[in-house]
What does this fold into?
Amino acid sequence: MKFHRMKFPRGILALAVAAALTAFGSFAVRAQEADAPPRLSWSFAGPFGIYDPAQLQRGFKIYREVCSNCHSLKLVSFRNLADPGGPGFTEAQAAAIAASFQVTAGPNDQGQMYQRPGQIADYFPPPFPNEQAARAALGGKLPPDMSTLAKARSYEWGFPWFILDAFRMYQEDGPDYIHAIITGYTDPPPGFVLPPGGQYNKYFPGHAIGMPKPLSDGQVQYTDGTPMTVDQYGRDVAAFLMWAAEPTLDARKRLGFQVMIFLIVFTGLLYFTKKRVWHDVLHDAELQRPRAPTEYQH
Amino acid sequence: MSGYSTYKPQSPFMQWLERRLPIASLIHSSFIAYPTPRNLNYWWTFGGILTFMLGVQIVTGVVLAMHYTPQVDFAFDSVESIMRDVNYGWLLRYIHANGASFFFLAVYIHIARGMYYGSYKEPREVLWILGVILYLLMVVTGFMGYVLPWGQMSFWAATVITNLFSALPGIGDPIVTWLWGGYAVGNPTLNRFYSLHYLLPFIIAGVVVLHIWALHVVGQNNPTGVEPKTEKDTVAFTPYATVKDAFFIGLFCILFAYFIFYIPNYLQHSDNYIPANPGQTPTHIVPEWYYLPFYAILRAIPNKLAGVIALGLAIISLAFLPWLDTSRVRSANYRPAYRVFLLVFFAAVIGLGYLGSQEPTGGYVIAARILTLYYFGFLYVILPLLGLFETTKPLPNSISESVLREGSPAGASAPASGA
Amino acid sequence: MTAAATAEPTRRDFLYIATAAVGSVGAAAALSPLVSQMNPDASTIAAGAPVDVDLGSIQPGQIIQVFWRSKPIFIFNRTPKDIKLAQDADWQSLRDPQPDSARVKQGHEQWLVVIGICTHLGCIPLPHQGGFDGWFCPCHGSQYDSSGRIRQGPAPLNLQLPPYEFLSASRIRIGENSQA
It folds into this structure.
């Protein structure tokens, strides 16, 4: 309706400006604890972005050869490797990968747990049976599970970037962060005292990270001609971990596009229906008739 | 709710039913023939949006409950199983999680509209208080729902919020232990929160019925704040209000769908994808965005008990608005001074929200204190005094007159009021 | 004016019908995830994979119970007497006529593998009970013979056979072979 359309939005604008001033004005910008991770371009960014199966397969190779020595991936199943929208392995390949892992099963008829080759319905077995075993083997450190890691890591860009990011559909802070950590190992600046067992990483909050530098150039063999650099490894494993954390991303964006189209069409129809319905009220001859103010007195 | 109906049952069955249970005429009089002011703007569609959102949350919530396990060892994994394995589980969970945010977005706009147009004033006090009760129930329900995924933020939100009660002298600690059902937040806490999170939405639905009942007794307010006087001032709820509500619900859904499908984790704190760890607090703990203004008020006050009281008072005070505001004029369109103070109040709330998300250091604390002072100053000083001293603009004689004045196609001879 | 006046209601009706139709389609589409979510999820489907059972430890005359897709499976190591009873029965006169040869694998007549769910209303029949050297269902008194065929009581059909195959003389795989 037109009657008060102009007033309230202007109020909201004033309000937003006031809020911005309140929020931004006169405060010293906080010193960041760590450098901002560089924002990379990802195949799965944006409204139509989906995973690149070749990249996920490379990332899986890195996970398998390097990360899985310390990090579990307990929410991901071997069958997921063959799921649509994932790394694109065939079911046979996924079964072969499963069979190459030993998983704990049982108890058997003698009441014993036993090791058997993995089956496609099994989940990735953890490198350590429990938290205590991991800490005992790794000098007190506990590597986090990687199943949701790419959604569990972020970086605060602060005002006003967090507002802009809503419009830019920026949801890749996790992969950006993971790539940054993998590539962020440097010598500590002079005067920086590392705690025992710590490594210096310019992107890690507080800089002293427990994980030793996991990847170096040429460490994992690629057969498809992709450069075997730490930067590329970081990108590939971050993409793989994003898939591990959000395996339904492809389906979500595909359905999302259909839903958006439907909603826009339907809302458009509702708008025209609304205009038609209200037409007679807004052009009511009786109402337009000039009348004296006394007509309203009761 | 009756009295507007011209409903006459046609078929023999409906006539039979009408004599025994007049539900058809009740629906007809409440949602079809019910007269609504003809000059309602789109800010009035948020009541319908809220009803829609309550329905969305209940439907998706009941479905999610079919797959969720309220047990500390399985809760996180069962949510992940919903995200990964359940058919359309990711969709249902993202709808429910973002639905909470959009529910609160709609309720804040609804409250702001009520404050801007003076919808709490006589004779709508009970309607308004029911609304504040609904908001309180939403806050409690939303908080308990946030605990259920049993991530780091879930666990520490449960710990911090329940610990608010420990500020109460003497009875505080026993209350907190009682809430937990243990010596710390744990399995009994998760289980009872799950039970209550399932129960409360239905209580909300019940209070919504009272809210709508009260609304239909006193009738809707409108942008002029002048009560409808003649039939020309109103239109029938259906089709006029329903189609307008439906259109705006459609627009609202487009925004909602954008979040669900393209930035589903934008409003979610990443730490909640880390399973709950009772041995380690996240470095930077914040509540969901919709609680941030009150969180900022809590932190602005250096005394524990006073902070908790201020937090509670900040919400409860809204219930006193009908008596704190002494002006007889309803709509801010005719109260220029009130309008400015109110918009600053809204800005202060948004500012508090931003401060609530930041670490409480230095300038942030000072700013939060200033804005908290304005929050309460507006409610307890400005509002009561303003009504006594403010010069208001002349009100139109009726809704139709205000429509005529502004909507006249012959070119506005009279200036638009309140602009 | 007249033309416009008659044309207008038609256009209006079309708009209303189109809006209502699109809205109905949307509502129906929104229902489908709500219905679909109740079907078995991906992990349940994957867990329905075949099960291997070693028959070596089953004594003659013994019936063991294993699970496949959450269903109890009876594996019956039949004695020569059990086999003879099953083969000699006048199968054509039974309620669900089936010869014993259709219920076991050729060359493995010793082994009867059936789904241990009464075909009446889903209870688990008790082994070695009833008057036919087979099973007796405690719920409503159905009796099955040593070939798992219904002989007496309300059940309409014989105990069903799961898909299975012999991997060796003493090892079977219950369930469909996976696609791999």
Strands of chain A lie at 102-105, 114-117, 199-200, 208-209. The two ends of chain A are 28 Å apart (CA to CA).
